[in-house]
C-alpha cells in the first residue's frame, strides 16, 4: 500500500514523481524519537478506545511492519497484516488502527469479486482501483461490515476508512455532499457497532457535520495546502488529528501544527517504516 491522494490534492503523475523522490529522502529517526516517551495512547471510553490529543503515532502501509517504533499508536493495513502482528503490538502496549479502503474498489483485495460492477466508477489514480458509488448504502453496508468484522477479529482497536471524500472528486457518479455525509455516518456507525474507534480521513469540508460521528482525524498535507485550521475542531473536542506531510520539511510545518496540538510527522509517499516526527 501507499499514501492516498484525492483528485484535488495531487494528480497521479505528480504522485509518481513524488514517490520516486521520497525514496531517496534522508533524515528522520527511523524509529521513535518523539522527544522522550510519548504520551499514553489513551484509555477506552465506554468500552471503546478514544485516543488522546497529541499522542504520537506510526503509519505504515507498505513493507513488513516495523514493530520497534516507540510510539503508542500504529496504523497498518488490515488485509495485509495477520492477527499476530496486532497481538505483538498490543503486547508492547500499543493501540492499533486498521487501514481499509472505504471509498474505492481494489482489484487486489480478496473480497474484490463481492462488489457489484454497477458500483464501480472511474479510476482513482492508482492501478486496480475505482471509485465506489457511495449512494448505494444497502449494497455497500454488508461489504464494509465484513471488512470491519475482519478488523475486529484480528484484534484492532480502530479503523481508518480511506477515501471518504468521493463527492469532491471525479468518480463517474453524481455524488453530492449529502450522499457523502450519509455514507460516512454509515461507516462510523459500522465501526462503533463493533466497538472500534473510527477516524475521518481527509474530507475537511465536512468536519463540522461529522465531528460528532468520528473519534479522530487522519489527514494528509493540510499544512502544504493551508487547511490545518479546518481540523482544529477535533482537537477542541478532545479528539486527535493524526497528520502527515510528504513534501514539506518538518521545519516548515512542525511549529504551526504543534501549536494546534496535532500528532504530526513527515513520511515517504509509499508509507513505509521511515518517519520524521515533529
From TrEMBL:
Keywords: Signal. It holds the Pfam family Glyco_hydro_114. Residues 1-27 form the signal peptide. Residues 27-47 are annotated as: Disordered. Gene3D superfamilies: Aldolase class I (3.20.20.70). The keyword Signal applies. InterPro entries: Aldolase_TIM, GH, GH114_TIM-barrel. Residues 57-274 form the Glycoside-hydrolase family GH114 TIM-barrel domain. PANTHER family: ALPHA-1,4 POLYGALACTOSAMINIDASE, PUTATIVE (AFU_ORTHOLOGUE AFUA_3G07890)-RELATED, ALPHA-GALACTOSIDASE. This is Glyco_hydro_114 domain-containing protein.
